[in-house]
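Issue: ligand-bound run for uridine-diphosphate-N-acetylglucosamine - logging full I/O for the record.

Environment: standard queue, default settings, no custom constraints.

Inputs:
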Amino acid sequence: MANTVLVTGGAGYIGSHACVELLQAGYKVVVVDNLVNSKTESLKRVQKITGKALTFYEIDVRDKEGLADIFAKESISTVIHFAGLKAVGESCEQPLNYYHNNVYGTLVLIEVMCDANVRQLVFSSSATVYGESVHAQYSEDFPLGAINPYGRSKAMIEDILRDLSAADKLTQSNNPWKIALLRYFNPIGAHESGMIGEDPNGIPNNLMPYVSQVAIGKLAQLSVFGNDYPTRDGTGIRDYIHVVDLVKGHIKAIATLEGEKFQSGGCHAYNLGAGRGYSVLEIIETFEKVTDKKINYKFSPRRAGDLAECFANPELALKQLNWKVEKSLDDMIADAWRWQLKNPQGYS
Ligand code: NAD
Ligand code: UD1
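Outputs:
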């Protein structure tokens, strides 16, 4: 019988793409989501794309009894934990909401997993957990030092999961935790069908959805935050990764958790990034080339909290997960644009 994966936050942007890959790889998929930042339409489309059914429970991961019931009903072997709030600015305004949702939500989830004896977990972490560094290319052993409540919620969860795994050694557990902390760089793009993609609420905070909405005429002009950074053209450089490449990393992570490396348990962090960065101007240029649309932009002051340059060292993921990105920036933009064109109002 196929293994069952519980996907928390499975109706969201990355979660819905993960559901497609999991179903296509032959897993049974159970989604829990409270729909705070998503719609069930994404899951309908996941099933349309794959021609396979999944099971959906509309609950909050902080609902311990509800979650325990699901573990009792479904024979779950692994959890991929995407559920969380993710807007940096909002996290500064509502820190308690972010810690409660992200940190407490994860505590409840792992308590329920303990009770159900399910100890295999893939966690959505973020490059945002790293502190500022003199090197723009980040390796997993770089010091951590998140600078906002969202980032700190991810760093706290990483600490909790490392402590949980360390405790197995002390208690000589015969069913030790197997945990992959996946630190995403900048996921963009959409499924190549154009049926699922990123559906931000209101005005997007992130570059790619903002550019797409300028191109389609929903927003008038892009502000390029800073053109005086010490980078090749003065604008910020990031490691953009196709969301489908990203979710394939999760499938590889599950296989790795089930393999020799994790035989006696463990908790390890992996960067999921391409290993190269593009500047904001390079993104605009490539967008214009791929879509044949002009992007109206102006230079604005730097955004508080932004780094000049940040990209992944993805070697550990290649070595231990046997994973690397396959798609190009052109692919990411073409797919993001197809999704935008086919769904100008997102899922609504
Ligand atoms: P998203 O908002 O599209 O998806 C998150 C999903 O979790 C949503 O469907 C939301 O309704 C659900 N959710 C939130 N809190 C919940 C709760 N308490 N109980 C049940 N469901 C809940 O975001 P995404 O971009 O798909 O991100 C997925 C994960 O990846 C998040 O944890 C995010 O922090 C992390 N991440 C995202 C990015 C990015 O750029 N998108 C980068 C790094 C890390
Ligand atoms: C942001 C979050 C980070 C999160 C990541 C997820 C902040 C400070 N950081 O990272 O915690 O993990 O998203 O993808 O919000 N830009 C513009 N104009 C815009 C929007 C962005 O010029 O309207 C620039 C930014 O200055 C940056 C680049 O585009 O140089 C990418 O920005 P964005 O997509 O917001 O991602 P990050 O800042 O890397």
